[in-house]
Amino acid sequence: MSAATPAPVTRKAQLDTLAVTLLVVCCAFWGFQQILIKWAGRDIPPLWQASLRMWGATALLWLWCRWRGVALFGRDGSLGGGLLAGLLFAAEFVCIYIGLQYTPASRLTVFLYTSPFWVALLVPRFVPSERLHRRQWLGLWVAFGAVALAFSEAFTQPTAPGQWRGDALGLAAGLFWGLTTVAIRTTRVATVSAEKSLFYQLGVTALVTPLLSLALREPWSLDYPAAAWGSVFLQTAVGAFASYLAWMWMLRHYPVTRVATFTFLTPLFALVFGVVLLGEPLTLRLVLALAGVALGIVLVNRR
Question: How many domains does the chain have?
Answer without folding.
Answer: 1
